[in-house]
Specification:
Distance between the termini: 64 Å
Number of helices: 11
Strand order of the largest sheet: 3-9-8-7
Structural class: alpha/beta
Largest sheet: 4 strands, mixed
Radius of gyration: 31 Å
Oligomer: single chain
Helix content: 40-55%
């Protein structure tokens, strides 16, 4: 029986020893490629996963946030908001709270009250005008918005009387009840939270874990993360 002859790409003859060498080399290279893929998965892919920031990493835990009972008065809520601007909070948080969480008798979060909610409470007629916050996104002209003062007879009382009359209102009657689109899971990505903030024009999102509200993600905290990330990448690119 004649020996089998093998040719390479340039038509030169390969003897059996060369053939065995090439087959062995091919197996070695295949093994190296497999080892490289495993190293790639353990390093690059894990680093990519580490770059995924979750909501839980940026949220303010409920126990660290300013809260008030729903049966409290608006005056007490205003005092709590004012206290949140003091120096102790400046040391703890880069940005100060612009709202406080409202709790029911079971200490469950049922809403929040912001500085804007306090202003709206000064004029009871705002409650009969529908979705005030939605109007601001409807592209109404400045002239129309100004005409609403006369058309709805708003702010007819002196400012001091408006403040005094509103001071005894119950928080539960002035608070804002978040919509379904203002809840985000603690393990959700920062990208998902940003999408919800942008589309909903929200200042904050309530963070949930197993149907329990565990924190609040503020627009200001997300903004801080954006700034720090931009600065970090800029410094890194300059050093490369």
């Amino acid at each position: 029986m004649s020996a089998q002859v093998f040719y390479n790409n340039d038509d030169s003859i390969l003897n059996p020893r060369q053939l065995v060498f090439l087959i062995t080399l091919k197996r070695v290279l295949f093994s190296l490629r497999g080892a490289y893929n495993k190293i790639y998965e353990k390093t690059y892919c894990q680093e990519a996963k580490m770059e995924i920031i979750t909501v839980e990493e940026l949220m303010v835990p409920v126990e660290e946030y300013v809260t008030i009972h729903e049966e409290a008065t608006l005056y007490e809520a205003v005092k709590a908001l004012e206290k949140a601007q003091e120096e102790e909070h400046r040391k703890r948080y880069h940005y100060l709270h612009r709202a406080i969480l409202v709790l029911d008798k079971n200490r469950k979060v049922v809403g929040k009250i912001s500085q804007l909610d306090v202003l709206m409470a000064l004029e009871p007629k705002y409650k009969h005008m529908g979705d005030i916050k939605g109007l601001s996104r409807s592209g109404l002209s400045a002239e129309f918005i100004k005409s609403m003062l006369d058309n709805y007879a708003l702010c007819e009382l002196p400012f001091t009387d408006m403040c005094f009359n509103a001071s005894d209102l119950k928080v539960k009657d002035c608070m804002y009840t978040p919509s379904e689109g203002e809840y985000v899971k603690a393990d959700a990505s920062l990208c998902e939270a940003i999408h919800m903030l942008v589309v909903g024009h929200h200042q904050s999102l309530l963070v949930t874990e197993e149907d329990e509200i565990v924190g609040i993600l503020r627009l200001t905290d997300v903004f801080k993360e954006v700034f720090q990330t931009m600065e970090s990448r800029k410094l890194k690119s300059r050093s490369e």
